[in-house]
Amino acid sequence: MKANAITPSGDPSAAVHPHEDESALIEMLEKAEQEHGYIPREISEEVARLLEVKLERLRRIQGKLDTTIRRDVQQHVERWRNEEGNLIMILHAIQNQHGYVPREVAMELSRELGVKLARIYEVITFYHYFKLQPPGAHNVTVCNGTACYLKGSGDLINELRTQLGITEGQTTPDRQIHFETVRCIGCCGMAPAVVIDGKTCGHVKTSDIAGHIEALKARKETAA
Ligand code: FES
């Protein structure tokens, strides 16, 4: 499942990046100060105007976003309203849609279903299946079931933590590699086993990890 950034148009490239705009404005102010020794009034007025335009745009986008989230959540709730255990079914539908359960969607679900947000997070965190962060472009899953554990899955997990700079359940900051652990995947004869983008690798050694990560990074470079 690929993560879908929540944008009003559904197009991830339409996501807003306020920090980029802020940096450009700050740069403009710093440049003016360096040049003149102070910030001329026409420049500060121009910056204020740009900020107002930006704020207005953000308000409009947020409004559309709220409407989209509300509509989607209402559809899910309507579909499962009278079913027993509907919270889990709705969370499945949300995760299928986004690849994870975004916080703003969980908040809307809490309102729509009349269930406390804390209860929703209780369910999300109880079931390993649900994710709170968007998944990475690639997935590395280490089996930590009994057979794999006895064959050294702990060392593989430590190596991945070191190599990726993240821990289980996290995604690298560039959102390329998501790393997690699971209980037995049913390939105990191949222990210790690691699943990389759906492909099961058996008898994995600590020294293999770097090569697997390099291969994933190379795929990223090819895709870029
Ligand atoms: S314990 Fe890892 S595959 Fe069974």
Commentary on this structure:
The chain is of the alpha+beta class and 224 residues long. It folds into two domains: 12-126, no CATH class; 138-223, Glutaredoxin (3-Layer(aba) Sandwich), CATH 3.40.30.10. The protein is 57% helix and 9% strand. The protein has eight helices and five strands. The chain has helices at 18-36, 41-80, 86-98, 103-113, 117-126, 146-150, 153-164, 206-223; strands spanning 138-143, 170-171, 177-182, 194-196, 199-201. The protein has a five-stranded mixed sheet, with helices on one face. Helix 2 (41-80) crosses helix 3 (86-98) and helix 2 crosses helix 4 (103-113). The longest helix has 40 residues, at 41-80. The two termini are 19 Å apart. The model is unreliable at 1-5 and 7-18 (pLDDT under 50). It binds FE2/S2 (inorganic) cluster.
Overview features:
binds FE2/S2 (inorganic) cluster; five-stranded mixed β-sheet; Glutaredoxin; 5 strands; 8 helices; alpha+beta
Topology:
Elements (H helix, E strand, L loop, with lengths): L17 H19 L4 H40 L5 H13 L4 H11 L3 H10 L11 E6 L2 H5 L2 H12 L5 E2 L5 E6 L11 E3 L2 E3 L4 H18 L1
Parallel strand pairs: 1-3
Antiparallel strand pairs: 1-4, 2-3, 4-5
FE2/S2 (inorganic) cluster binds next to helix 6.
